[in-house]
Structure formats: structure tokens, C-alpha cells
Amino acid sequence: MSETRNVIILGTGCAGLTAAIYTARADLKPLVFAGLMPGGLLTTTSIVENFPGFPEGIDGYELMTRMQQQAERFGAEIKYGPVESVDFSKKPFTVVADGEEITAKAIIIATGAGHKHLGIESERLLDKKGVTYCATCDGALPMFRNQPLVVVGGGDSAIEEALYLTRFASKVHLVHRRDALRASRIMQERALSHEKIQMEWNSVVDEIHDVQQDCVTGVRLKDTLTGATRELPCAGVFVAIGLAPNTAVFQGHIALSPEGYVELHGGTRTSVEGVFACGDVADHVYRQAITAAGTGCAAAIEAERYLAD
Ligand code: NAP
Fold it and tell me: Phi/psi zone of residue 66: left (φ > 0), alpha (ψ -120 to 50 degrees), beta?
């Protein structure tokens, strides 16, 4: 087995990479696992307009690439591939990745959150065949060009997806289960005033067609007030109904909330001494790039103090 590391960081989103920058500058030589989505969810957004320091906005992928370069410049070592299991029951802690067991004195969990699913069978069967969770990744595909598209959700993500898709689609139907959006005011105004975006209020996607044809041809919408259903033709369904924390691998190893978020006990401390958590994996309230970066910094400082003690 390799030498015990000072600190292992799990995740390379805003939280993980900020923790990497801070622990690397503290000369702790962090080992950072990038997980299934290197750079985290921000790499799938287009322009990030609210990260301080970029008055014109910055491309999400570029922001994360720069953060990684900054962490590596100070000596952070990045490894790719998902973490298979952890053992926090004894010290040093063990992390198994790619079949290799690595031990560390401290762990920082920054595995973030993933996209929630609608949970209907046709969504699963038509995944990547017209059903997608990322407009910036898939929106420009030929199958979606000059076609009507459906976006599901009423938060900032759904609006961002809908606005992005107006570049390619003939029309974007924004399907929301209530009659008021959850998104921030500025995003709401942009969506509601856009000529290509049509609101489908008080509606949920009940069924996605057409599993027989193995591609998306439309959706059945159900009115949440009356229960009435209607058909809406479309070439793609972009699901943007929020996030679920990536904590499956920690189940039974640290305390999680009923929704699966890491429970914090003051600052970024988890239920296991020496294991810290930051970013969206422990935050169901703010979930912003800048708050993730902030808690990543806090986790690094707390880990550094823990190791010094
Ligand atoms: P969110 O704010 O939790 O919104 C999820 C939306 O999906 C809500 O409108 C919700 O409806 C709806 N929804 C949830 N489950 C559903 C279901 N099963 N069926 C139909 N609709 C469902 O999630 P988000 O939009 O992904 O945003 C996550 C966080 O990232 C937020 O804090 C957001 O501010 C942030 N963010 C910010 C930006 C930005 O600043 N530009 C961009 C993207 C994301 P209800 O409203 O009825 O609950």
C-alpha cells in the first residue's frame, strides 16, 4: 500500500478544487479524486455570470479548468475515476479507487450533487435518445435544431437551459408544476419576456413518447390542478428539476440527512472526526458556485488545523 497521505479530497467541483488550492498552499500535498464528472456541474453550464471577479461572465468549463490549474500549480495531485468505497471506521482513513487502497489522515468530501430524474419509465428508456439533463452538452445536436423542445422545471437551472436552447430550437416549452417560478427574478424576467419561450404552467410530464420509435417525439402533459392530460409534440426533453447529493458511497460511514446530504456539525465537520465536507454535497440551501468555493476554503482550513493538532 502507498504511503499515508495528509489529505484526500473527493471531488473537483468548486468546493473540491478550492479545498485543493488551500491545502496545497499549506504544503499538505493533497491527493484529489476527480470522480465521475471532473470539474463538477459547473462544467455543464454556459456562462457563469455571478462568480465574483468576472464582470463579463466566464464559461463554466473555463472557470473549472483555471481552478484545477491553480490547484496543480501549488502541488495538488489530481487522479481521475470514481471512488469505489471508503472506510472511515479507523485511522488512517481508507479510500479505494480503481482497485487501489489509499490511506489518509484527513478526508474532505466535495462530491457535489447530480441531476434529479422525473422517475418515469419512458424517461429512463429514452435517456440520450432525446431525453437529456444538460442543454450545454446536448442542445446543439442536429436532432434538436429548429424543433420544438421541452424543458422541465421552474428553478434557475431550468431557465438557464431554456434560454440556452432558444439558440437552436424553433420553440422552447417550459413545463412547470406550479404557476410561479422558483428562479431568481433576473432569470424569470429573461424567460418570461423571451419570444421563443412558452410557459406551460401547472403541468407535469406524465409520459415521454415514443419508446416504440426509440426517440422523443412528444410528451403527455398532466394539469396539476385538474388532472386533464394533453399532448405536446417535441424533439427533446431537457430535465432540470434540481439536484440530489452524490453520497451513495458514504452511506453507513458518516451521518447523512434523510435526503442524503452530509450532515455537518459546526463548520465543515462531519460525524467522523477528521472527515470534512463542503459544497453541494452538504448544502441544500445556497448551492452556488461561490458558496461551494467558500466552504471548500473552510474545509481546507479546518483539515489543516485538525492535522496540526
Ligand atoms: P431548484 O432551485 O431546486 O429548482 C428545481 C425546480 O424543479 C423547482 O421549480 C421545482 O418545482 C421543480 N421540481 C422539482 N422536482 C420536480 C418534479 N419531480 N417534477 C416537476 N418539477 C419538479 O434546482 P435548480 O434550478 O437545479 O437550482 C439548484 C441551485 O443552483 C439553486 O440554488 C439555484 O439558484 C442554483 N443555480 C443558479 C444559477 C444562476 O445563478 N444562474 C443557475 C443554475 C442553478 P417547485 O418550484 O414547485 O419546487
Answer: alpha
* 147-206: pLDDT as tens digits: 999 999 999 999 999 999 999 999 999 999 999 999 999 999 999 999 999 999 999 999
Q: Which residues pair with 39 in a beta bridge?
A: none
What are the CA-CA distances from residue 214 to residues 130, 208, 210 (Å)? 9, 11, 6
In this model, does residue 112 exceed pLDDT 70? yes
Distance CA 238, CA 4 (A): 44
**Contact between 205 and 177 (Cβ < 8 Å):** no
Tell me, rounded to whole angstroms, the distance of Cα 123 from its chain centroid.
19
Positive or negative, the CA dihedral 61, 62, 67, 69 is positive
CA-to-CA distance for 291 and 13, rounded, in angstroms?
12
* Domains of the chain: residue spans and CATH: 5-114+243-308 (3.50.50.60), 117-239 (3.50.50.60)
Is the separation of the CB atoms in 48 and 62 below 8 Å?
Answer: no
Q: For ligand 1, say whether the CB of 284 is within 6 Å of any of its atoms.
A: no
Q: Which of 14, 48, 156, 222 to mutate to test the pocket of ligand 1 (most atoms within 8 A of CB)?
A: 156
pLDDT at res. 160: 94
Q: Which three cell numbers stand for residue 2?
A: 502507498
The answer to whether 93 and 87 have CB atoms below 8 angstroms apart is yes
Q: What DSSP element (H or E) covers 219?
A: strand 218-223
Interval between CA 151 and ligand 1 midpoint (Å): 12
Determine whether the shortest distance from the Cβ of 302 to ligand 1 is under 6 A.
no
CB 182 within 8 A of CB 154: yes
**Residue 110 gets which letter from DSSP?**
-
Average pLDDT over residues 63-76: 98
Report DSSP state, residue 89: S
Q: What is the mean pLDDT of residues 268-289?
A: 96
Chain centre distance of CA 183: 17
